Every structure is written in structure tokens, then in C-alpha cells.
């Protein structure tokens, strides 16, 4: 029996990205000690680091994610605003959807807090450091799992540590733990480590639409001072270019361009501006063509969707949990990543609470498998949304959609056409996009009649020609 009673209980998290940080907040409620093992050395102030190569690009926290983060860290929103993060009324944001400009109205959504990813992570790390039972083990690369003699239980990790001031000074430690959580992202080595313990690695599903980013930060001056935030959606298969311009902390504006089907935005200044100029609305181009850039142009192309099916394994060790992008990674263009990381942490908290109700003495038997199965269900909606959209690119690889999914894609096209002229439908769509409501609301008869009516309108126009 895996009991954690009458001694200090210990949980280890592999990876200090957002998924790992949020998980540590939850674990700190259930374990005496929580260790976050991170390869990088964290910057003292908000700044990019190698372990989060996508941090230089636009990050939007959906309403559902913001609610959960505020529950985990009360007052976090006010702290971010005090640090300069703009708070935006959703009405002030222009959205050029695949079907055209969405209506300007006041949706029933909370204000959006816009910030750099570096600012968010820095504030969460600071809040976690206030917990005396949360410890950051920086410069540590996990090299494998420790296991009991039967290899039925993971009992810790082996870590190779570097010295911050003397990188050549390397030593290895074996760290024992009652629970190991892999939050190391898409580079996770858990499949290989499981195989080394005699387990079958999980099957993987990967769908790649070959979407790339290019982003740059501009000084807020001149015409940018009067610019409104704008989001230009991609519209595959025909519209492969999009972009966004949003204010962030420090009186700056972040511009992120994106292109699918290998139509990558260039990283040189002339090519970057030309790409902006070709977007279906001149709004972003007009705002930045004479603006002062204060950073280089940064590119990122690691946008494939990847799902590891840990929930389907016939044999699975005790005391090992995989969360975040280590189990399910989405194309970041849909803005699900941070919110899903928050949902993962919330699910972990619920599972640990139920485990404690079942085994008050601290037994963790069965927790890991049960959690991975529940997590798989939790990821179904955002995963389905991401792959259904990415499968629409002509050059998309890996997508195998059934008839029901294809019909759903066609139906959503009709919904997008309706919402550009219907504020109520747009409201429903935004609530789904922010993961406040289930996608089923978009199939309500009041919306379905309008969406399907688009087919009649198109057919009538065709007959008149």
C-alpha cells in the first residue's frame, strides 16, 4: 500500500512552465513539500527564457482560465493590472472573423487582462514562493524515473543539476517522492522512461497544419496611441494569413502574425510589413507601418497538435501523473493552452480531494490512472476544436476526421457567417470560445435555424444567377 502517513509527504513536478506552476499550487494543499524541477534558471524579473520559446508571442487568457487563476491566486488580476497589464472591455476589441467583422457590442464577458507571458509567470512564481512548502529546484534536468522493485510504482526521479554560476559543475541526485507530475511540455520524455521500466509507451495522435508565428513589440506612440486592439482570424483553407495587435504592460503593443499551410510570416522587417499589408483588413498595417519597433522579430513554428493517449494504456504505474502539453498540446493560435493548464490543475485538485475522502490515511493507489482518464475527457472539447480547424488546411497532415466531425465543421462555418450580423449568436460563440459554455449551445434551435438558413440563402442566390 502506498501510504504517505506519519512522515513528510513529497510531490515532485517536472517543469516550471504554467502547467507545472498551477499544479504546484494545488499540490501544496495536499502535500507537505512540493518540488518544482526546472531545467532553466528563472529570471529575477519578467523576461523570456529558453524553456518557453513561444513566450514572445501573443497570449490571451480566456475568461474561464482567468476565473480559475483568480481562485488559485486571489488578487492576481489586480496585481497584473497594477504591474501595467491593460484591462480591456471586450467591446473595444475588433474581431475580423473568417466571415468578416464581428458586430461591435458589449458581450456578457469579463474584461480581458492582456500581458506578456513573462509577466504572468513571474507573478505566479512570486506567489508560489510565498508558500513555505513549495521549492524551486532550478538548473535540474530529469533523466528518468525511480521505481520500486516490482516497477509497479514510480517512487521519484533522477536529476542532473547544473550550477547557476558554474555551468560545468554538474552533479546527479535521486529525489524520492510520493507523487511525480510530468509538466515538461511537448518535449516530455515520459514515453521513453515508461518503456525503460517495461511499460508500453502511449500511442500518439499528431495533426500539423504548419502554422507559424512572427511577433514584435512596438512603442506606444504616434498612431499606435489611438489604435484599438484587433484580432484577424485565419480562415482555412482559403485564408491562410492572420494576425493580432494588442497592448501589453510597459506601454507597449505586441503584434503577432500567423500563417498556415507553411505560409509563414517572414522574420525580416520588409517581409514582416508586407505580410501585414496583405491581411484582409488594413487596420494592423496602418497602425504599425510608421511605428517604432523596440524588439527584433521573433519566429515560432512548433504549433502541431499532439495527443498522447495515456488513458488507453493497459498497464500504468502508480504515482505518476502527466498534465499540460506533456499529454495534450494544441496549436497555440486558438488560445486554449493557458486555460486548459488551469483546468488540468483544477481537475488534479478535485481528484486529490476525492482520493483523500476515500483513503484518509493518504493512500494514493489508483489515483494516477483515474486522473489520466478524467483528463482525457476534459481535453476532448478543446482538442476536437483545434484539430477540426487545423484539418481544413490543404497541407494539413495527420487528420482523420469522421463524418460527424466534418458535418460539424461545415455547420460552424454557417454559424460564423450568421454571427457577423447577429449579436446574440456572436455572444453565444464568444462564450464557447472562452470555455464558459459548452459548444452544444451553438446547436440550440434559435441558432441552428439561422445557421441552416444560410444554406437556403446561398441556394436562392445561386438560382437567381
What does this structure look like?
By secondary structure, the chain is an alpha/beta fold. 34% of the residues lie in helices and 21% in strands. Strands 5-4-14-15-16-13-17 form a seven-stranded mixed sheet. The chain has a five-stranded parallel sheet with strand order 7-2-1-11-19. Strands 8-9-10 form a three-stranded antiparallel sheet. β8 and β9 form a beta hairpin. The longest helix is centred in the last third of the chain and has 24 residues. The protein is globular and about 65 Å long.
Short description:
The chain has helices at residues 18-27, 63-72, 76-82, 117-129, 190-196, 269-277, 283-288, 337-358, 367-390, 403-419, 423-433, 445-464, and strands at residues 10-14, 33-38, 87-88, 94-97, 100-101, 112-113, 134-138, 140-147, 154-162, 170-176, 179-182, 204-207, 212-219, 230-232, 241-248, 252-259, 298-300, 305-308, 320-322, 328-329.
Amino acid at each position: 500500500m502506498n501510504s504517505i502517513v506519519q512522515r513528510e509527504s513529497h510531490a515532485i513536478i517536472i517543469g516550471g512552465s504554467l502547467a507545472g506552476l498551477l499544479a504546484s499550487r494545488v499540490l501544496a494543499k495536499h502535500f507537505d513539500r512540493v518540488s518544482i524541477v526546472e531545467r532553466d534558471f528563472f529570471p529575477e524579473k519578467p523576461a523570456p527564457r529558453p524553456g518557453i520559446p513561444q513566450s514572445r508571442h501573443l497570449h490571451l487568457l480566456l475568461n474561464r482560465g482567468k476565473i480559475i487563476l483568480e481562485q488559485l491566486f486571489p488578487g492576481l488580476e489586480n496585481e497584473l493590472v497594477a504591474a501595467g497589464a491593460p484591462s480591456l472591455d471586450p467591446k473595444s476589441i475588433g474581431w475580423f472573423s473568417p466571415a468578416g467583422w464581428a458586430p461591435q457590442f458589449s458581450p456578457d464577458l469579463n474584461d480581458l487582462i492582456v500581458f506578456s507571458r513573462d509577466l504572468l509567470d513571474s507573478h505566479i512564481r512570486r506567489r508560489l514562493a510565498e508558500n513555505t512548502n513549495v521549492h524551486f529546484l532550478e538548473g535540474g534536468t530529469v533523466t528518468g524515473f525511480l521505481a520500486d522493485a516490482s516497477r509497479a510504482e514510480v517512487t521519484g526521479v533522477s536529476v542532473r543539476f547544473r550550477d547557476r554560476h558554474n555551468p560545468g559543475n554538474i552533479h546527479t541526485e535521486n529525489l524520492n517522492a510520493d507523487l511525480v507530475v510530468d509538466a515538461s511540455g511537448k518535449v516530455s520524455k515520459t514515453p521513453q522512461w515508461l518503456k525503460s521500466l517495461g511499460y508500453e509507451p502511449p500511442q500518439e495522435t499528431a495533426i500539423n497544419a504548419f502554422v507559424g508565428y512572427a511577433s514584435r513589440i512596438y512603442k506606444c506612440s504616434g498612431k499606435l496611441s489611438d489604435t484599438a486592439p484587433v484580432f484577424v482570424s485565419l480562415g482555412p483553407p482559403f485564408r491562410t494569413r492572420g494576425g493580432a495587435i494588442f497592448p501589453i504592460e510597459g506601454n507597449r503593443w505586441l503584434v503577432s502574425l500567423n500563417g498556415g499551410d507553411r505560409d509563414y510570416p517572414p522574420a525580416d522587417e520588409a517581409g514582416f510589413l508586407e505580410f501585414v499589408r496583405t491581411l484582409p483588413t488594413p487596420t494592423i498595417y496602418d497602425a504599425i507601418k510608421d511605428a517604432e519597433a523596440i524588439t527584433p522579430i521573433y519566429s515560432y513554428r512548433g504549433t502541431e497538435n499532439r495527443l498522447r493517449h495515456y488513458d488507453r494504456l493497459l498497464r500504468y504505474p502508480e504515482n505518476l501523473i502527466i498534465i499540460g502539453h506533456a499529454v495534450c498540446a494544441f496549436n497555440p493560435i486558438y488560445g486554449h493552452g493557458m486555460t486548459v493548464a488551469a483546468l488540468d490543475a483544477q481537475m488534479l485538485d478535485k481528484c486529490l480531494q476525492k482520493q483523500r475522502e476515500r483513503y484518509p490515511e493518504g493512500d494514493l493507489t489508483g489515483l494516477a490512472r483515474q486522473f489520466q482518464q478524467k483528463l482525457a475527457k476534459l481535453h476532448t472539447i478543446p482538442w476536437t476544436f483545434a484539430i477540426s480547424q487545423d484539418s481544413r488546411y490543404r497541407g494539413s497532415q495527420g487528420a482523420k476526421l469522421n463524418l460527424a466531425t466534418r458535418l460539424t465543421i461545415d455547420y460552424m462555418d454557417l454559424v460564423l457567417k450568421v454571427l457577423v450580423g447577429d449579436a446574440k449568436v456572436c455572444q453565444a460563440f464568444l462564450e464557447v470560445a472562452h470555455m464558459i459554455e459548452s459548444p452544444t449551445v451553438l446547436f440550440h434551435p434559435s441558432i441552428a435555424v439561422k445557421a441552416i438558413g444560410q444554406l437556403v440563402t446561398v441556394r436562392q442566390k445561386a438560382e437567381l444567377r
